[in-house]
Every structure is written in structure tokens, then in C-alpha cells.
Amino acid sequence: MTKNEAALAKSWVATRHAAPTTALELREVEVREPAPGEVRIRTEAFCLDFNDIDSIYGRWVFRAEPPFVPGMLAAGTVESVGPGADHLLGARVVGCTANGQGGYASTALLTTRTIQLIPSWLTAADAAAMYFPYLLSWLALKERARTAAGDVVLIHAAAGGIGSGAVQLAKAFGATVIATAGSAEKLELARELGADYAVNYVQDDFVAQVLDVTNGRGVDVAFDTVGGQTTLDTFRVMAFNGRHLIIGYSADAAAEKAGVNLQPSIYGNFDICGVCFMAVEDPRPSRAFGMNFMSTAKCIEIWNSTLQLVRKGVVRPVVSRTIELPEVPEWLEAMENRRTTGRTVVAL
């Protein structure tokens, strides 16, 4: 399909704000033609994300009103393009969905500013599994924390979708990695991915464990996607001149609106580093609102660097399971209940 016309897509629709197993219904939905800065793909794969769960519940900061199709990301082949994107027609791509919704469908709209090309040697499933874990982790660890060889890096939720990528990148950058996770299975995965130390935060006091491992010095970098009490406890293990990366709030999405008390960083002499992954063609307009985002060119550079690490066998996509479209609600529930590891990929 090369002409711009609406397409029908088999889609999971959030009919109300509730648990995924209650709110989602499988329907046929019309997907509009792509606007400027967009392409429409025939979806081959997408991943389940915590932000999607929060969106379905109606508690994500970018609230969508039902009915809507959740899904922040999709991978597939471009079948139709908006003005100015002719060069992408027929390309295999992965990227963020328009307005952060619409990925849980057989056809999806992606924004061109976030799109990455998928090489012939990489599957769409692996590309989808790599996208957020590696682009976000690289932004956090290298661009924001300036992680270098010899640093000690603490990674929370190290066996999760994002954490599993962060562990591998931190090791690739030459760091010593202390991983936290909530079960023996997850700790084993973290070690397999390269973690030097693994701490069960459910059974053990991770603060005591980290201070023991570092002989009381603390960590140079903390990779924190959890928030809440975990963030407050992590303040206690930051080394002098450490960098605490605030990346997400998987423990409680409402915590994003509450803010973070900066006082511990004053007496602790460490930095609190905010991390927000978003790609924009021109970063300058967002400065008027006090925001700084990566350029599309920078994202392409990071993606290409990550692909080289994959080809060399230094890092890999962590696809723990591949499921079919009808299985989405039950696996979102499993993710919400912390019963998953790595990335759960939906193959179409």
C-alpha cells in the first residue's frame, strides 16, 4: 500500500480505565493515514511495557481517555508515509507510536523522529526488544551519568525489560555492576548478563549489601527505574560525586507528580540526574518550556553504536518470551505482578 488511505487493524482497545484483563477488548480499529512526521507500518512485533499498564489504568502522566489502543512502540514494515517521509516507504523500522498510543495493533502509526532502521540480520522482535532498553540505558548511563571504566554501578530491577539492557551496557562501558532483583530466577539472569554482584531486595537489605561490597564507599552511579522508598534508600549508598539516575517510577506512577527531595544530595555530595527519553528533530523549541531532549541524529548514533555491540556479541536483546496477540492481557497482568523477566514480545 503506497497511497494514503485508512487501514483496518486488529487491535487491543482499552475500553475503560481498569486492570488490563478487565479493560482490554480485541477489536478491529481504523488506523488513519499518516500525517506529516509519521509513517504507518504493518506491525511485525511490539513489546509490553509498564507505561502501557499505567496508561490502561489511567494513572500515567500522559493520560489517554478510553477508548484507545495502548502501546508506545512497534516494529514492522512501512506501508504508507506522510509528507516528507517517502524515503522510508518499504523500510523495516522500529520506533515510538504517534502520541504514545496505538502499538497494540496489526497496523500502527510511528513518528519519524523516533524511527530506527532495522538491519537485515536483526529480527523485528529483537529490534522491538532492544529499542527502549538500549536507547534509554545509553542516554542514562553514558550521556547523563558519564559512566566510565572503573565506576561501580547499582542497577535496580536488573532483570526487567530496561534493567537487563542497562546491566549489559554498564559492563560494556567497563563498570562493576551491583544488580538488585526480587527472586532467585531474576538474580540468576542478572548474573548471566554480566552483573558482578546480585542482591535479592526482598530478602536482604540492599543498602547494607551495597555498602559491604563497596567497603562503605558507595556507588558511583545508581540506575533507578523504581522510585518510592527504593529511591530514598538508594540515597544512602551514593558515593562522593556519585550520580543517581531518576529514570522511572515503576513502584508507583503517582510518585512522578510528588517530586524528589533534593536535601540528601546536598549533604551526600552526589548528583540527582533526571532522565527522560524523547527524540526531537530540533531540540530548541522545547527549551521554551524548560525541557531538554535528544535530537533524532543523536538517537540514530546511539542505535548504530548499540547494533555494533550486538554484532560483536557484547550485548544482546533479552527476549524472555514471545507471545501471540490474544495473550496480551494475561501477560500484562503477569508483568504487573512482577512475574516476568527481560522483554515480553508480541509477534504478529
From TrEMBL:
Residues 21-346 form the Enoyl reductase (ER) domain. Pfam families: ADH_N, ADH_zinc_N. It comes from the Bacteria. SMART domains: PKS_ER. This is NADPH2:quinone reductase. One of its GO terms (molecular function) is oxidoreductase activity. It comes from Parafrankia irregularis.
